[in-house]
Write a structure and sequence with these properties.
Order of helices and strands: EEEHEHHEHEEEEHEH
CATH architecture: Alpha-Beta Complex
Distance between the termini: 33 Å
Structural class: alpha/beta
Length: 230
């Protein structure tokens, strides 16, 4: 049995009610719920929240909310891994043969089902791996990064200051959309950012972290542009 887990706590401060705020016409969490359901990859699509308002919206769009998240993992310091572990323990106690969980962030309106499927396929084909998650390439070579100290610029990696950008190895970062994991892997001490993971590389036009109002506006514009191109 495989289930999707969508973490959505109610305490967002920079964007109040972020997980159910209207995004191009519907609550942003609806996009993640609908993508998970439409993918037909999951026996259950579960939302983990501490908010009854979020729970109501999640159920309206077809998700299960079998519990309200405990306060201990609902504050600003709770990690995604803690939330996943709580949900995995809950589901494995109630269902037989739970094999995989995919954590999908509630603020992933650009999520494409094809990459969700790719993540599961690659993980199933690699029994020595525990995780598969979305990454994307940095827009500019990280080796050419600069720092500013007391108003003065300096190169973080001076050894690359005169290296052509096309000669530098690409670097990647977490795309913040989804994290597939085997149940054994998720309950172990294995790290996502390690050789136990398979990268699912997304194009940059499908990636926008949403932490600030500016991020939100940019993501809405990207989503509208994608909708017009389909």
């Amino acid at each position: 049995m495989k289930f999707a887990l969508i973490p959505a706590r109610g305490g967002s401060k920079r964007i109040p009610n972020k997980n159910i705020k209207s995004f191009n016409g519907k609550p942003i969490i609806a996009y993640s719920i609908e993508a998970a359901i439409e993918s037909q990859l999951f026996d259950h699509v579960v939302v983990s929240t501490d908010s009854q308002d979020i729970a109501n919206v999640a159920r309206e769009y077809g998700a299960d909310v079998p519990f309200l998240r405990p306060d201990a993992i609902s504050d600003d310091y709770a990690t995604t891994r803690e939330v996943i572990t709580h949900a995995v323990n809950y589901m494995t106690k109630r269902y037989d043969e739970v094999t995989h969980c995919c954590c999908i962030y509630a603020t992933s309106p650009l999520l494409q089902i094809s990459y969700l499927k790719q993540g599961l396929e690659k993980l199933l084909a690699s029994p020595d791996k525990a995780f598969a998650f979305s990454v994307t390439e940095f827009a500019f070579p990280v080796q050419r990064a600069l720092s500013i100290t007391n108003g003065h610029l300096s190169a973080l990696y001076p050894q690359y200051s005169n290296t052509r950008s096309q000669d530098l190895n690409p670097a990647y970062h977490d795309a913040g959309q989804f994290y597939w994991g085997t149940i054994d892997g998720l309950l172990s001490d294995k790290a996502f950012f390690s050789s136990d993971s398979i990268p699912i590389v997304l194009p940059s036009y499908l990636v926008q972290d949403i932490d600030t109002p500016d991020d939100w506006l940019r993501a809405e514009l990207m989503h509208k542009a994608m909708s017009l191109s389909l």
